[in-house]
Amino acid sequence: DAALQLGAPAAGPSARCPHSPLPAEHPSGTALMNGSAPHESLRGEKDARQNGHEEAEAGEDGNDQEVIVIQDTGFTVKICAPGIEPFSLQVSPQEMVQEIHQVLMDREDTCHRTCFSLQLDGNVLDNFAELKTIEGLQEGSLLKVVEEPYTVREARIHVRHIRDLLKSLDPSDAFNGVDCNSLSFLSVFTEGDLGDSGKRKKKGTEMEQIDCTPPEHILPGSKERPLCALQPQNRDWKPLQCLKVLTMSGWNPPPGNRKMHGDLMYLYVITVEDRHVSITASTRGFYLNQSTAYNFNPKPANPSFLSHSLVELLNQISPTFKKNFSALQKKRVQRHPFERIATPFQVYSWTAPQAEHAMDCVRAEDAYTSRLGYEEHIPGQQKPADLRNLQRVLRRRCWEGVHSDFTAAATRGAMAVIDGNVMAINPSEETKMQMFIWNNIFFSLGFDVRDHYKDFGGDVAAYVAPTNDLNGVRTYNAVDVEGLYTLGTVVVDYRGYRVTAQSIIPGILEREQEQSVIYGSIDFGKTVVSHPKYLELLEKTSRPLKIQKHKVLNDKNEEVELCSSVECKGIIGNDGRHYILDLLRTFPPDLNFLPVEGEEMPEECKKMGFPKQHRHKLCCLRQELVDAFVEHRYLLFMKLAALQLMQQKANKQESSGALENGASPENGTAESEKSESDDGKIDDNVTGLDQVKELAETIASDDGTVDPKSREVIRNACKAVGSISDTSFDIRFNPDIFSPGVRFPESSKEEVQDQKQLLKDAAAFLLSCQIPGLKIGISELITRSAKHIFKTYLQGVELSGLSAAISHFLNCFLSSFPNPIAHLPADELVSKKKNKKRKNRNLGNADNTAWASMTPQELWKNICSEAKNYFDFSLECENADQAAEVYNLQKITLLREISLKTGVQILLKEYNFDNRHKPTFTEEDILNIFPVVKHVNPKASDAFHFFQSGQAKVQQGFLKEGCELINEALNLFNNVYGAMHVEICACLRLLARLNYIMGDYSEALSNQQKAVLMSERVLGIEHPNTIQEYMHLALYCFANSQLSTALNLLYRARYLMLLVFGEDHPEMALLDNNIGLVLHGVMEYDLSLRFLENALAISSKYHGSKSLKVALSHHLVARVYESKAEFRSALQHEKEGYTIYKNQLGEHHEKTKESSEYLKYLTQQAVALQRTMNEIYKNGSNANIMPLKFTAPSMASILEQLNIINGILFIPLSQKDLENLKAEVQRRQQLQESIKSGEHLEPDDKAVEEKEAEPSMPSAGLGLPWSSSSFF
Question: Which residues fall within 8 angstroms of residue 910, CB to CB, at 6 or more apart?
Answer without folding.
Answer: 226, 227, 228
